[in-house]
Design goal:
The chain is about 25% helix and about 30% strand. The chain is α/β, with parallel strands linked by helices and about 190 residues long. The radius of gyration is 17 Å and the shape is globular.
């Protein structure tokens, strides 16, 4: 089954920023409508403990997309959280995430998608398990206030563009098929593809 890593990002590669609202306050109606529809897709959501702690606070709220997240099956990889988890449809796994996800890819009837979880995503990408790498880039640079740098510690990866879309004339979706690289690509190799 397919595994997609899914992020929102500032233009300079941060997943969040101190003092800013979620999505930097730049979400528009077109993006929110797409997000509500995309979140309701028939996927199993994978996340780590920090993302669970943050996102589970939305459970049962009237925040756009919260009901779809509540209904979706979720798996949390954590050695620090304990049962019972408060977020509906959430299973806790205290085991090596890479091996569990490798097994899920072979046996799951549902596509898999990550939610935040930088460390988990880095491990899954490094293990070669990621089929799609999707990032929604918001038109903001948060060099001073940015936190949660997305790409630090990632392996070298070539990205083949699968889809692109623009929301609200400013938010850009980039959907790639990743290929791990053993070494930097020689000059001109990408232009010959």
């Amino acid at each position: 089954m397919e595994l997609m890593v899914d992020f929102v990002s500032s233009l300079d590669g941060y997943g969040a920023a101190e003092g800013w609202p979620g999505l930097w306050g730049l979400e528009g109606p077109e993006y929110l409508a797409w997000l509500a529809q995309d979140t309701a897709a028939d996927r199993t959501i994978l996340m780590g403990a920090n993302t669970y702690r943050l996102m589970s606070t939305m459970a049962g709220s009237d925040i756009e997309g919260a009901a779809a997240l509540d209904a979706a099956p979720k798996i949390v990889f954590s050695s620090t959280l304990r049962e019972p988890l408060s977020w509906a449809n959430t299973r806790l796994i205290n085991a090596e995430a890479v091996e569990v996800v490798r097994e899920l890819k072979a046996t799951s009837q549902r596509p898999l998608v990550t939610l935040g979880s930088l460390t988990l995503c880095r491990a899954l990408l490094s293990a070669g398990l990621v089929d799609r790498f999707r990032v929604v880039v918001f038109p903001v640079i948060t060099g001073t206030t940015g936190r949660d740098r997305i790409y630090d510690g990632y392996p070298d990866v070539a990205l083949d563009l699968a889809e692109t879309r623009i929301f609200d004339r400013r938010i850009v979706l980039l959907d790639y098929r990743p290929r791990l690289l053993d070494a930097p690509l020689p000059p001109g190799l990408l232009s010959r593809r």
